[in-house]
UniProtKB/TrEMBL annotation:
<dbReference type="GO" id="GO:0005886">
    <property type="term" value="C:plasma membrane"/>
</dbReference>
<dbReference type="InterPro" id="IPR038408">
    <property type="entry name" value="GNK2_sf"/>
</dbReference>
<comment type="similarity">
    <text>Belongs to the cysteine-rich repeat secretory protein family. Plasmodesmata-located proteins (PDLD) subfamily.</text>
</comment>
<dbReference type="Pfam" id="PF01657">
    <property type="entry name" value="Stress-antifung"/>
</dbReference>
<keyword id="KW-0965">Cell junction</keyword>
<keyword id="KW-0677">Repeat</keyword>
<keyword id="KW-0945">Host-virus interaction</keyword>
<dbReference type="GO" id="GO:0009506">
    <property type="term" value="C:plasmodesma"/>
</dbReference>
<keyword id="KW-1015">Disulfide bond</keyword>
<dbReference type="InterPro" id="IPR051378">
    <property type="entry name" value="Cell2Cell_Antifungal"/>
</dbReference>
<keyword id="KW-0732">Signal</keyword>
<feature type="domain" description="Gnk2-homologous">
    <location>
        <begin position="30"/>
        <end position="134"/>
    </location>
</feature>
<feature type="signal peptide">
    <location>
        <begin position="1"/>
        <end position="26"/>
    </location>
</feature>
<protein>
    <submittedName>
        <fullName>Cysteine-rich repeat secretory protein 60</fullName>
    </submittedName>
</protein>
<dbReference type="InterPro" id="IPR002902">
    <property type="entry name" value="GNK2"/>
</dbReference>
Length: 164
């Protein structure tokens, strides 16, 4: 009985991984995969909003030179500090990475307006911003399959697995 349950779990895991790999391989740079925003919001026209805008601009500008990066924009108080990161799949050139990220950041700005946490994964790029405390809020709502998808994306974007 235990062997059958183990085999069933292994089969399910392999099916999920196969689905994610097929989805990644067939995705265009602007295909929406998933996204999320926090319920807690910042005050409009606040130092946090200014820092967030600086961070999002830095993410897009950095994609001109690198397929992944992270930034921290310091504030005068801990509540004004904003963190962010992005990653593009390994088969994208920096121009395509920047275009994908620019599209993603644009969607984040409109979909997650005033949120203290937001993440978005398009077909070939991922971006996230957050502040102190918001990370735990969002991580608890994310399903395991989304985390698996990010792990697959990380694997596929590594120098050891390049798409042709």
């Amino acid at each position: 009985m235990a062997i059958m349950a183990t085999n069933a779990m292994l089969s399910l895991s392999l099916s999920i991984c196969t689905f994610f790999i097929q989805t990644v391989l067939s995705s265009s740079t602007d295909s929406f995969v998933f996204g999320g925003c926090s319920q807690p919001q910042y005050t409009p026209n606040s130092p946090f909003e200014s820092n967030l805008n600086s961070l999002l601009t830095s993410l897009v500008n950095s994609a001109t030179y690198s397929s992944y990066n992270s930034f921290t924009i310091m504030g005068s108080t801990p509540q004004d500090v904003v963190y962010g990161l992005y990653q593009c799949m390994g088969d994208l050139g920096v121009g395509e990475c920047r275009d994908c990220l620019s599209e993603g950041i644009g969607r984040l700005k409109s979909e997650c307006w005033a949120a203290v946490y937001g993440d978005l994964y398009l077909g070939k790029c991922y971006a996230r911003f957050y502040t102190v405390g918001a990370w735990g809020i969002a991580a608890k709502r994310r399903s395991p399959s989304s985390l698996d998808y990010l792990l697959v994306m990380g694997l596929l974007s590594s120098p050891f697995f390049m798409l042709s």
